[in-house]
Specification:
Blueprint: E1 2-3, H1 6-18, E2 28-29, H2 38-47, E3 52-55, H3 58-70, E4 79-82, H4 90-93, E5 102-104, H5 113-126, H6 132-150, H7 158-166, E6 178-179, E7 185-196, E8 202-214
Parallel strand pairs: 1-2, 3-4
Antiparallel strand pairs: 5-7, 6-7, 7-8
Helix pairs in contact: 6-7
C-alpha cells in the first residue's frame, strides 16, 4: 500500500522488483488528503496475506499505523513499513510503533564517530533526537563543505568542486560510501525498529544490516560514465 503519487509508485516499484514471493493485492490511495484507510484495511482482512508493506510519510503514516492497530490487524498480520516510523512520528505513535520493522541508510545509533558527534550535538542544541531528514541535511552540508575545502574556498571552480564531491571524501553520518556512475550513492541499508531508551524516550535502533554497498539496479542504463 502507498499513496498515489510519484514517491509512492517508486517505492512500491522497488518492493516489487526485489520481493521474491507472490503479491496478492496492491492499493494506491488518494494523496495527500486521504486519511481514512478503512476500505483498504478491509481488503487486507479479507485477503489474509502473510504480511503487508506500506509507505506513508507524515500525517498519513501516523493515521495508517493507528488504524492498522485499531482494526486488530497488527496482532494478526505482520506490517513492514517505509517512512512511517521515524523520529518525527515516534512522539505521536509511541507504543504503536514497537515491533514494526522499517529500513533506511541511516539510523540514529550507527557507531561511526561522525554520527556519534552529530547525534550528540543535535540533542544538545534541540533537546530531541535527530530525524533521518536532519541526518540527510547534515550530510549534504558536509559534502558541499568538502568540495569548498578542496578548491581552497574558490567556488568559481565548479568542475573541480564536482570532481571533489564525486569522491564523497568526508565523514558521513551514514558511514563510508561512494557514488556510482549515475551519481547515486552505493551504500548500506539497515533494518530498524522502535524501542524505548534508558530515559524512556522512543527512538530507533539498528537490528540488522539489510543490504551492504547496495547500488541501484538502473545504473548500467545511465549514459553518464562518471
Amino acid at each position: 500500500m502507498a499513496p498515489n503519487y510519484a514517491a509512492g509508485k517508486d517505492v512500491l516499484a522497488g518492493v516489487k522488483a526485489n520481493f521474491k514471493g507472490q503479491i496478492v493485492g496492491e492499493d494506491y490511495t488518494k494523496w495527500p488528503d486521504q486519511l481514512d484507510f478503512s476500505v483498504e484495511l478491509s481488503k487486507v482482512r479479507n485477503i489474509k496475506p502473510d504480511a503487508v508493506f506500506a509507505f506513508y510519510p507524515g500525517a498519513a503514516g501516523i493515521q495508517f499505523l493507528t488504524q492498522y492497530s485499531q482494526s486488530g490487524l497488527r496482532g494478526q498480520i505482520p506490517l513492514y513499513t517505509s517512512f512511517i516510523v521515524d523520529a518525527l512520528s515516534l512522539p505521536r505513535l509511541t507504543d504503536l510503533a514497537l515491533n514494526v520493522p522499517g529500513a533506511q541508510h541511516w539510523v540514529i545509533d550507527l557507531p561511526n564517530d561522525a554520527n556519534k558527534k552529530f547525534v550528540a550535538d543535535f540533542k544538545r542544541k534541540y533537546d530531541r533526537n535527530p530525524s533521518f531528514y536532519a541526518a540527510q541535511a547534515y550530510d549534504s552540508a558536509m559534502l558541499i563543505d568538502s568540495a569548498v575545502k578542496a578548491v581552497g574556498g574558490d567556488i568559481t571552480k565548479k568542475d573541480a568542486m564536482r570532481d571533489a564531491m564525486r569522491k564523497a571524501n568526508y565523514a558521513s553520518v551514514r558511514g563510508s560510501y561512494k557514488y556510482g556512475n549515475n551519481h547515486f550513492p552505493i551504500q548500506n541499508f539497515y533494518l530498524q525498529e522502535a524501542v524505548k531508551d534508558d530515559a524512556g524516550t522512543f527512538t530507533l535502533k539498528t537490528t540488522a544490516l539489510a543490504l551492504k554497498d547496495h547500488q541501484d539496479r538502473y545504473h548500467e542504463l545511465c549514459k553518464m560514465k562518471w
